[in-house]
TrEMBL record:
The keyword Transport does not apply. GO terms for molecular function: 4-hydroxy-tetrahydrodipicolinate synthase activity. The active site is at residues 136, 164. Pyruvate binds at residue 206. It comes from the Bacteria. This is 4-hydroxy-tetrahydrodipicolinate synthase.
Length: 306
């Protein structure tokens, strides 16, 4: 399936039962809510998806179930976060076999690769598959920055097509657009820079709080792309305290609590993660409760793609 690399793409959470198995019933409930809101793809196996705790069999099930649920309406993308080039190539091959439409890729994990090693890693995986690829550029959390010069080399690979821009430097979107134009699609990966990034020309938004608030997230994107900036801004100002739950070491627990509040998730996480406790739990619940009390009525606006 062709991927346009635009619109809102949820990095969905993985749902677990109290017995620590996949909760596929609640997972489907959430995916259906995303589809109804008008998202443009589903991304599996990111940080929010607790990918590092999933077995290969669980990843297979999640890809296959998501492909079944979306039924060809939108692409299914799987994140690759591996320690070795061999492991990343194997993961890409499995993703294709199980029905994924595209890949999101982090640089090598644990080992701090230099620029040449990082570029070689991405290119070797790109050579091994015909799936389209979005590079996940998050030096803040993962310690390796993919620079514009590195992207110049990477774009010699036709299936490297997009970047999840998470440098936290809003000007980087302009730098990318100035240098590459439409050769490299840009999707913001930082919820608290969501609207700002769209206004600076980002093609899409890989979102986190969308897991709990899909309609609001899609509304901000669609209104902004339609030039209805004051309406988008009003929703975004309401949303910001909730969006700040995404830039936190406990973002998975935070967002799962928000999913409970909106009825499309559970609080279950997989150890070593544990549900929030004490004062931090009270703080997060207060933010969510305030957001639910003041949840805005959304204006009419069809989900927009660029």
């Amino acid at each position: 399936m062709h991927i346009k690399w635009e619109g809102v793409m949820p990095a969905v959470t993985t749902k677990f039962t109290k017995e620590d198995t996949l909760d596929l019933e609640m997972f489907e409930t959430n995916i259906q809510a995303q589809l109804e809101a008008g998202v443009s793809a589903i991304i599996l196996g990111g940080t929010l998806g607790e990918a590092s705790t999933l077995t290969d069999e669980e990843k297979k099930i999640l890809i296959q179930e998501t492909v079944r649920i979306v039924s060809g309406k939108i692409p299914v993308i799987i994140n690759i976060a591996e320690q070795t080039t061999k492991g990343a190539i194997e993961a890409a091959n499995k993703a294709k076999k199980y029905g994924a439409s595209g890949l999101m890729m982090l640089p090598p994990m644990r080992y701090k690769a230099n620029d040449f090693e990082t570029v070689t890693y991405f290119k070797e995986v790109a050579k091994s598959t015909d799936l389209p690829i979005m590079i996940y550029n998050n030096p803040v959390d993962y310690g390796i920055e993919v620079t514009l010069d590195m992207f110049e080399e990477l774009l010699t690979m036709p299936n490297i097509q997009a970047v999840k821009e998470s440098t936290r430097d809003i000007s980087n979107i302009t730098r990318i657009k100035n240098r590459f134009g439409d050769r490299l699609k840009v999707l913001t990966g930082v919820d608290t820079l969501g609207l700002e990034s769209i206004l600076m020309g980002a093609d899409g938004w890989v979102a986190g709080l969308v897991c709990a608030f899909p309609k609001e997230t899609v509304a901000i994107y669609s209104l902004a792309k339609a030039g209805r900036i004051p309406e988008a801004l009003a929703i975004y100002r309401w949303f910001l305290p909730l969006l700040e739950l995404d830039i936190n070491p406990q973002l998975v627990q935070n967002i799962k609590l928000a999913e409970v509040a909106t009825g499309i998730g559970t609080e279950q996480v997989r150890a070593p993660r544990l549900p929030l406790q004490g004062d931090e739990r009270k703080r997060v619940l207060k933010i969510i409760e305030e957001g639910m009390k003041t949840r805005p009525t959304l204006p009419e606006c069809k989900p927009a793609l660029v």
